[in-house]
Amino acid sequence: MIDSLSENNSFTGKELSEKLNLSKPTISHHIDILKEAGLINEERNKNSKLYSLNYKRMNDFIRVFSDKFKR
């Protein structure tokens, strides 16, 4: 699943819920947190919202996080 999440692959909340086997409210809650952190992008498509990973921000986060544990 994670392999299919990229800037070129976007998913609705419903699709994420089905793929990750999590409830829609759980997905919605986590999407809000990830959006606030800038780790995912949201795009409107007609009546749907599409979500994709923000790879630049994700790589920055991973770099900073790993640097903290190298000490």
Write the layout of secondary structure elements.
Blueprint: H1 13-20, H2 24-36, E1 40-45, E2 48-53, H3 55-70
Antiparallel strand pairs: 1-2
Helix pairs in contact: 1-2
InterPro entries: ArsR-like_HTH, HTH_ArsR_DNA-bd_dom, HTH_MetalResp_TranReg, WH-like_DNA-bd_sf, WH_DNA-bd_sf
GO molecular function: DNA binding; DNA-binding transcription factor activity
Domain HTH arsR-type: 1-71
Concise overview:
With 71 residues, this protein is of the alpha+beta class. The protein has helices spanning 13-20, 24-36, 55-70, and strands at 40-45, 48-53. The protein has a domain at 13-41.
Task: Summarize the structure in words.
The chain has a domain at 13-41. It is elongated and about 45 Å long. The protein is built from three helices and two strands. A hairpin with a 2-residue loop joins strand 1 (40-45) and strand 2 (48-53). Helix 1 packs across helix 2 (24-36). Strands 1-2 form a two-stranded antiparallel ribbon. Helices cover 52% and strands 17% of the residues. It has helices spanning 13-20, 24-36, 55-70; strands spanning 40-45, 48-53. The chain has 71 residues and is an alpha+beta fold. InterPro entries: ArsR-like_HTH, HTH_ArsR_DNA-bd_dom, HTH_MetalResp_TranReg, WH-like_DNA-bd_sf, WH_DNA-bd_sf. This is Helix-turn-helix transcriptional regulator. Keywords: DNA-binding, Transcription, Transcription regulation. Residues 1-71 form the HTH arsR-type domain. It comes from Inconstantimicrobium porci.
